[in-house]
Amino acid sequence: MLRNLLGASATADTMLEAIARDAHETGDKTGRPVFGDAVMEAMRTVPRAAFVPEAEASFAYENRPLPIGHGQTISQPYIVALMSELLDVEPGARILEVGTGCGYQTAVLCALGATVYSVEVVEPLATAAAVRLKALGYAKATVRAGDGRTGWPEEAPFDGIVVTAAAASVPPALVVQLGPGGCLVIPVGRAAETQHLQRIEKRADGLSAAKSLLPVAFVPLTRGPA
Ligand code: SAH
Q1: The domain that contains 67 carries what CATH number?
Q2: Is 5 part of any domain?
Q3: Which of 32, 36, 201, 223 has the fewest CB atoms inside 10 Å of its own CB, making it the most exposed?
Q4: Alpha carbon distance 40, 137 (integer Å)
């Protein structure tokens, strides 16, 4: 217990337990009190320690965000699992991610069998994530540097789009690039205190229905380093 508090003993197993606990506690809001086996297995297999700076390695399996440099973070494991769960990824799905960061969510989506196109606005983070994902064998991930608010039109339509930084409002290009039946998972809100995770489904008739699920705290979507 004490070692847990000090953060030295968190393992992939304790991380999975923490995710399951959070899923259960937030289930009334998210509609997903228990995450699917595939998502939990992906969270077990992707080595989070390989995605954090060396100085943070001993905290890698704690259920919290960690700094990755450039003023950015690796998301909390529970949030990564939740967003993956809400996307309902089928093997072979084409997913767009906005906000690669260190590439952890990208790897989890690859582990679920998706082909992932990921855009990161901070160029050195994009480069490092691409190198890391390749070295770890996530061959179905493609990363590019740029402003992800305009999506990746050349590769659209997507079965799912996940945005891992908060938008003041939903970028219209992302809705356009979603295929019929596809879904967009995105934190929306101007201030950190008022962000909500939204799940927006594009119906076969092209109309989309948004559901506000959970209060969250993401870094904001930006135009890139000033
Ligand atoms: N998916 C990451 C989360 C990284 S944090 C994970 O698995 O941990 C969010 C990332 O979004 C940051 O790296 C930030 O630089 C990036 N970002 C912010 N605005 C962006 C934009 N307009 N386009 C693409 N990436 C953006």
Answers
A1: 3.40.50.150
A2: no
A3: 223
A4: 20
C-beta atoms surrounding 38 within 10 Å: 16
- Taking a C-beta distance cutoff of 8 angstroms, is the pair 125, 70 a contact? yes
Question: Quick one: 135 exposed, middle or buried, by C-beta within 10 A (0-12, 13-18, 19+)?
Answer: exposed
SS3 of 145-167: the string is ECCHHHCCHHHCCEEEEEECCEE
Question: Which pLDDT tens digit goes with each residue over 116-136?
Answer: 999 999 999 999 999 999 999
- The alpha carbon of residue 29 and the mean position of all alpha carbons in its chain are separated, in whole angstroms, by 19
For residue 1, name the pLDDT band (cuts at 50, 70, 90): very low
Three-state DSSP class for 210?
strand
Contact 66, 52 (CB under 8 A): yes
Pocket test for ligand 1, best of 122, 143, 152 (most atoms within 8 A of CB): 122
Q: Which residue has the higher pLDDT, 50 or 218?
A: 50
Looking up tokens 């608010």 gives: 149
- State yes or no: is 58 an active-site residue: no
Per-residue model confidence as pLDDT tens digits over 33-75: 999 999 999 999 999 999 999 999 999 999 999 999 998 999 9
Question: What residues make up the domain containing 164?
Answer: 12-216
Helix axis angle, 104-111 relative to 77-87, nearest 10°?
40
- Rounded to the nearest angstrom, the distance between the alpha carbon of 2 and the centre of ligand 1 is 33
Domain count, the chain: 1
